[in-house]
Amino acid sequence: MERKEEPEIVHNEKQEPLLLEIQSFLGAIEGKNSIVVKAQQAVNVTKIAEAALLSSQKGIPIYLDLK
Predict the structure, then answer these.
(1) Cβ-Cβ contacts under 8 Å for 12 (sequence gap 6 or more)
(2) Contact 62/51 with Cβ under 8 angstroms?
(3) Which of 13, 17, 20, 61 is spaced 20 to 30 A from 5 at the CA atom?
(4) How high is the pLDDT of residue 38?
(5) In the 3-class helix/strand/coil scheme, how is 28-47 assigned residue by residue?
(6) How many C-beta atoms lie closer than 10 Å to residue 17's C-beta?
(7) Lowest mean per-residue pLDDT among 1-10, 28-37, 44-53
(8) Element holding 52 (H helix, E strand)
(9) Segment 9-46, tens digit of pLDDT
(10) How far is CA 13 from CA 10, 16, in A?
(11) pLDDT band per the 50, 70, 90 thresholds, residue 60
């Protein structure tokens, strides 16, 4: 009698995004991988977050000129 193989169980566990970001950054510093987010992208995200906060506080739109 031929034995059937058991199907492989795939665990699709989600990892915490901030942890993945930190691990990626540390890996880039150590030379294990390349930088995923460029410096200018990080600056733009910070500007957008600050503008969103200011807009919600003042109740007016904030316009940005991003590079």
Answers:
(1) none
(2) yes
(3) 13
(4) 86
(5) HHCCCCCCCCCHHHHHHHHH
(6) 8
(7) 1-10
(8) helix 39-58
(9) 666 678 888 888 889 989 999 999 998 888 899 899 99
(10) 9, 10
(11) very high
Can you give the pLDDT at residue 20? 87
Indicate the pTM of the whole model: 0.57
Instruction: Give the C-alpha separation, 11 to 62, whole Å.
Output: 43
Q: What does DSSP assign to residue 60?
A: S
Using CA atoms, how far apart are residues 42 and 47, in angstroms rounded to an integer?
9
Instruction: Please list, in sequence order, all residues whose beta carbon lies within 8 angstroms of the beta carbon of residue 35, skipping any fewer than 6 positions away.
Output: 25, 28
Q: CA 64 to CA 67: how far, in whole Å?
A: 10
Q: What six digits make up the tokens of 59?
A: 């109740």
Residue 25 backbone phi and psi in degrees, to 5: -60, -45
